[in-house]
Amino acid sequence: MPFGIAALAITSAVLHIPKVKREHSIDYLGAVLLVFGVTAVLLAVAVYGPQDGWGDSRTLSYLIVGLILSAFFVYWEGKAKEPILPMRLFKNHTFTLTSLLGGVIGAGMFGAIVMLPLYLQIVKGNSATEAGLKLIPLMLGIVSTSIFSGKRISTTGKYKIYPVIGTAVMTVGILLMTTLTRTTPFWQLSIYAILVGAGLGLSMQTIVIALQNAVDFQDMGVATSSNTFFRSLGSVFGTAIFGAVLNNRLTHYLAGGFSSLAAKDPSAVAGVDLSQAGITHIVAAPDSVAPVVLNTALDAYVNALHIVFYTAAPLTILGFILALSLRELPLRTSHDYAAAREEAAGEAVG
């Protein structure tokens, strides 16, 4: 909250953007269709699917309704006078590419942000506060490379190389996380987190620069907000998919691990509650069970997280391929923006 208030005060005092008064026709129907369509799909994917099962009637109902509303939203946006998301923007190669890339980056970013604290809290036994603080290396990677790439783009006028390198580095960092074990030291995890963060930092702001450089001045606002929207969608869908993979593989590895333990040492699992609630208790109160039981449960969590990271890697590889397809256009100058503002002002009313 204090940082938000400070940011609001600074931007209000320093950021002065030319205002152009226009007559508008607000796309209320498009807004309603977008909100309800996306909400229904997200509820199906992020809540009811993992909770009730992907074949559950409620999951399927929400998913079908959401897809129908989303399809009608696309149809309506092609007819609306001032659409929330103009479909013509998708004819712009850079807009389409950066929208896809934003979704991939969002999935990778939030996948790491969600899964790393799980590893730290469940496997390493850290508190929620400690796990949050141990994400600092990830944030350092994001901030430092964002600053670096911004300065280099300002100096050279070239931007394509940064999302290419960024997605490649992010892929390496995610693949390295498949080597995590119960005994991995924090300094080693920090290196992996820095790599993922560095990849995100090189990619996130750069694709926004590429997007803003490729669209008309009057479309810059809606194009930028759309990119943020697609990144948010990617983060939600990515987190839901990774969570589903984690739960599925965790159940598999827990069953296999404790079956193997029971075969080797039946007395070790005698009286141990192997239900979901029992496993949760084992992790929450490690001193209440034998070390071999605890290690079996933790190994199952680690192995399940490995599959999650293996699942995330192809997604970031897709991001690398998309980044390679990005077209590098000459950066606009201040004169170009001034001319665009004057052109837009010529269409103003009052």
TrEMBL record:
InterPro entries reported for this sequence: MFS, MFS_dom, MFS_trans_sf
- Intracellular or extracellular location(s): Membrane
**Major facilitator superfamily (MFS) profile domain spans which residues?**
1-331
According to the UniProt record, one GO cellular component term is: plasma membrane
Is Transmembrane included in the keywords of this UniProt record? yes
Q: Which residues cross the membrane?
A: 28-48, 60-76, 97-119, 131-149, 161-180, 186-208, 229-246, 307-326
Sorted keywords for this record are: Membrane, Transmembrane, Transmembrane helix
A Gene Ontology molecular function term of the record:
transmembrane transporter activity
Q: Does the keyword Ribonucleoprotein apply?
A: no
Membrane topology according to the record: Multi-pass membrane protein
Q: Which PANTHER family match?
A: COMD (PTHR23501:SF197), MAJOR FACILITATOR SUPERFAMILY (PTHR23501)
Question: What is the name attached to this protein's record?
Answer: Unannotated protein
